[in-house]
């Protein structure tokens, strides 16, 4: 298919379409990138089984995070900094699911009816939500590590203000990163610098995003690696068996976090790098798996609520209590049976102690020596979840 005319005419046609904000501009770029090869035309395609599966994945992400968010807000009474980090991560994962759902529903034939600004907004919101999720994980890991190694007393209001300030900064940076193409960093009518996977995105912008996400991944890995070493060292020094057992459980949780993040995000990094440094002909031939790989990155936002619920006693109790109240309202269980099962479940489901209950801390001591602390025995205090 070729709707562009001769190569000499294409830039002039493109500039006219860009000036009018016409949807045909998107057809022009997709045609140049080779994304229309094998199609009868822009209208060729439909929801199909594959897109239906992607809708199911995004719906799962949305429902899981809605459940966890509702449980945290309605059932958790603590308002320590951990609470705000929990809400922030859950909100970013919820936005990721919603953005991906909108992206899937507006893809296929609907792509070629979008104005260029709408196309940039569709992709930019997804980039923004993914960035917000990773920035939130980085901030939470850094805050947890700082709490571990810095035995300095800090007032609750000061801590809360600092945490909320950093959360706001995370969202501001994420919004800026996702909307840069809409603000002008794009390759409209500059076909040679365009990505094959995202035909209106500049390869330079995609490389910038990959570098940012790779640095975040490296920083998260380093921080959790440091937490891993500190907890293991303190677990080995501890004389009490329960403390060593809690340390081992925490180490397993840290490994789960890192493995899930690397497995979900690693393939997307590789695909984008191949798109940036590969030729257009090679990209058109081999880079056809972006839908699956992007879905895998989004799936990380579905894995997060599972880690929260099964590795943190406080969140597990909140989720079970929320579901239990729903059961009672629907009349699916008797009150005694429902509450008894919930109590039994949360007492056995958690593999760690809660970090949200009153406990001893560095604040009660002037000693600067490392020792095993109660916050280290919970995923809520390691990752604030």
If you had to describe this structure to a student in words, what would you say it looks like?
This protein has 385 residues and is mostly helical. The protein has one domain (18-37, 46-324): Rhodopsin 7-helix transmembrane proteins (Rhopdopsin 7-helix transmembrane proteins). The protein contains 13 helices and no strands. Helix 5 (116-149) packs antiparallel against helix 6 and helix 7 runs antiparallel to helix 8 (241-277). The termini are far apart. Residues 64-308 form the G-protein coupled receptors family 1 profile domain. This is Sphingosine 1-phosphate receptor 4. GO terms for molecular function: sphingosine-1-phosphate receptor activity. Keywords: Cell membrane, G-protein coupled receptor, Glycoprotein, Lipoprotein, Membrane, Palmitate, Receptor, Transducer, Transmembrane, Transmembrane helix. It is a multi-pass membrane protein.
């Amino acid at each position: 298919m070729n709707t562009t005319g001769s190569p000499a005419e294409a830039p002039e046609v493109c500039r006219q379409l860009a000036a009018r904000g016409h949807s045909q501009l998107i057809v022009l770029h997709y045609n140049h990138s080779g994304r229309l090869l094998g199609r009868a035309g822009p209208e060729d395609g439909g929801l199909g089984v594959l897109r239906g599966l992607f809708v199911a994945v995004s719906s799962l992400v949305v429902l899981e995070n809605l459940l966890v968010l509702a449980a945290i807000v309605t059932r958790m009474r603590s308002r320590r900094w951990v609470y705000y980090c929990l809400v922030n991560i859950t909100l970013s994962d919820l936005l990721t699911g919603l953005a991906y759902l909108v992206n899937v529903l507006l893809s296929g034939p609907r792509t070629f009816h979008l104005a260029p600004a709408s196309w940039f907004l569709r992709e930019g919101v997804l980039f923004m939500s993914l960035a917000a999720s990773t920035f939130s994980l980085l901030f939470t890991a850094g805050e947890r590590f700082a709490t571990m190694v810095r035995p300095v007393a800090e007032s609750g209001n000061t801590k809360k203000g600092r945490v909320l300030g950093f959360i706001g900064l995370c969202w501001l940076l994420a919004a800026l990163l996702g909307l840069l193409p809409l603000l002008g960093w794009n390759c409209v009518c500059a076909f040679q610098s365009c990505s094959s996977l995202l035909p209106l995105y500049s390869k330079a912008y995609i490389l910038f995003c990959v570098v940012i996400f790779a640095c975040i991944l490296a920083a998260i890995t380093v921080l959790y690696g440091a937490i891993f070493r500190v907890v293991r060292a303190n677990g080995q020094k501890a004389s009490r068996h329960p403390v060593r057992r809690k340390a081992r459980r925490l180490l397993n949780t840290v490994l789960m976090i890192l493995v899930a993040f690397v497995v979900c995000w690693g393939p997307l990094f590789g695909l984008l790098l191949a798109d940036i440094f590969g030729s257009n002909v090679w990209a058109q031939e081999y880079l056809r798996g972006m839908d699956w790989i992007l879905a895998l990155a989004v799936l990380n936002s579905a894995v997060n609520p599972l880690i929260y619920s099964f590795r943190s006693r406080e969140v597990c109790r909140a989720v079970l209590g929320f579901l239990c109240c729903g059961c009672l309202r629907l009349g699916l269980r008797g009150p005694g049976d429902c509450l008894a099962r919930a109590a039994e479940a949360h007492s056995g489901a958690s593999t760690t102690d809660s970090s949200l209950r009153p406990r001893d801390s560095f604040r009660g001591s002037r000693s600067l020596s490392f020792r095993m602390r109660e916050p280290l025995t919970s995923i809520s205090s390691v990752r604030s979840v």
